[in-house]
Amino acid sequence: MSDREAKKAQFAAEKKKSGYSALIVIAVVVTAVAGAAFWFMASPANASKYIQAENGKISISLADVNDGQAHYFKYKAGDQPVSFFLLKSSDGVIRAALDACDVCYRSLKGYRQEGDDMVCNNCNQRFQSNMINVVKGGCNPAPLTRNIVGDKIVLHERELIDGRRYFPTSS
């Protein structure tokens, strides 16, 4: 093999090796982007936070839910989690509802926010945020009584305990 042929073979081998390197870099970048997207989707704005009651009341800072976004929480009623959400609706009122309804609760899929609407993850029915706590029954989010006390929104523990029926356990 001549020097020229040897250099040609070496160049081809290096080119092939750099092609594999590029594929590895692309794979790493795609994995990092997918991981970041997953982390973002599971980030605090979308994650349920467990809360506790004190003297039959649940208090949540208004500052934590005053941004127009749905904030999801869980309360442990005995050994059963009960999910609910709070959001400041388009009319400026803080709304509270179980993350379930009378119709689709067995699916345990809850609601997602799309703009000014809460959307059932099971049947895709849309509900304007300013109608939560106003319209009841059917596929509307099951309302929770809420009061503003100083800089807190206060819910009644009894309503969350009663809300267990909307979150059947798989046994």
Major β-sheet, in short? 4 strands, mixed
What characteristic shape results from the CA principal axes? Answer: elongated
Overall average pLDDT: 82
What's the total helix number? 2
**SSE string:** HEEEEEEEEEEH
The helix-and-strand class reads alpha+beta
Poorly predicted sequence stretches spanning 5 or more consecutive residues: 33-46
Tell me the helix content: 25-40%
Percentage of β-strand residues: 25-35%
Based on CA atoms alone, the radius of gyration comes out at: 25 Å
Q: Count all strands and give the number.
A: 10
Order of adjacent strands in the largest pleated sheet? 1-3-4-5
Distance between the termini: 74 Å
Relevant terms:
171 residues; three-stranded antiparallel beta sheet; 10 strands; 29% strand; alpha+beta; four-stranded mixed beta sheet
Describe the protein in words.
There is one protein chain. The longest helix is centred in the N-terminal third of the chain and has 39 residues, at 3-41. The chain has helices at 3-41, 157-162; strands at residues 49-51, 57-61, 71-77, 80-88, 94-98, 111-114, 117-120, 126-128, 146-149, 152-156. Strand 7 (117-120) and strand 8 (126-128) form a beta hairpin. The protein has a four-stranded mixed β-sheet with strand order 1-3-4-5, with no helix packed on it. By secondary structure, it is an alpha+beta fold. The protein is built from two helices and ten strands; from the N terminus they run αββββββββββα.
